[in-house]
Amino acid sequence: MTWSEMQPLLYTNTLDTLFMVGWATFYAVLLGIPLGVLLNLTDRGGLLQNVVVNKVVGAVVNVVRSFPFLILMVVLIPFTRMLVGVSIGPTGAVVPLAIGAIPFFARLVEAALREVDRGLVEAAQAMGGGTWTVIFKVLLPQALPALVAAVTTTVITVIGYSAIAGAVGGKGLGDLAYTYGYQRYETGLMAVTVVLLILLVTLVQLIGDLIVRRLAGRGTRAPSTLRVGLRRAPKKEAEALTEAA
To answer: What does the pLDDT look like over 3-24, one tens digit per residue?
Structure first.
């Protein structure tokens, strides 16, 4: 196959891969962050400690994560067809890709939030901050570099999943590699497809690392309102002791 014949195929299937990865990642982040926050808050010592909820949600997450993606995609065919009207093609592949990525990303979010300094959380609570304040003013901002790294890892994982999806009717670069590279022995096209996937993964990793370094370079200082509150706290304590005396 000549390069002029390859170009339309590569262009179309690359767009299909970007479509699948983009939408699957969007839904993974949209639903994975609340799920990861819930796992963190309901864990032992969490703000909303609830062992039963944590175990049930954790078990569901673990069950979905344990499915090999190819099996998950086949199992979800009726649900995918009911949800989007098709079970094949880029649109049909987004559903299993997202469902496979959501629990994966949720666990990464949980781990990122677990690394936030508990002192900041306790300080926010001492200042009267409720659960929502702690989440949006302390946990998520402080974990932002780790969350960006988690998104990067998830995107790369979804790219790998999309190649598998392409081999079973999901289109994209995976379909191109399987249909032309494997079934028709077009080794040249297969090599170009592999190079494109490597370049795509490398580009995502470089961008993700760059953003993480920028965020980490700013430091993980406490929010300004929290810092002001912490500075005022000793003064209030001193005034209270003076009045008591």
So the answer is: 677 788 889 999 999 999 999 9
- For the record, the structure tokens of 49 come out as 């400690």
Residue-by-residue DSSP string for 23-66: HHHHHHHHHHHHHHHHHHHTSTTSTT--HHHHHHHHHHHHHHHH
Joined tokens for residue 2? 């000549």
Residues in CB range of 201: below 8 A, 6 or more apart = 156, 159
The pLDDT-based confidence of 232 (bands split at 50, 70, 90) is: very low
Q: What angle do CA 168, 24, 56 make, to 5 degrees?
A: 100
Instruction: Give the H/E segment covering residue 73.
Output: helix 69-75
236: confidence class by pLDDT, cuts 50, 70, 90: very low
Residues 6 or more apart whose CB falls under 8 angstroms from that of 150 comprise 105, 108, 109, 111, 112
Is 13 in contact with 176 (CB distance < 8 Å)? yes
pLDDT tens-digit profile of 122-160?
Answer: 898 888 888 899 999 999 999 999 999 999 999 999 999
Residues 121, 200 contacting (CB under 8 angstroms): no
Cα angle 11, 17, 21 (rounded to 5 degrees) comes to 145
Q: Cα dist. 214→137, 148, 203 in Å? A: 20, 11, 17
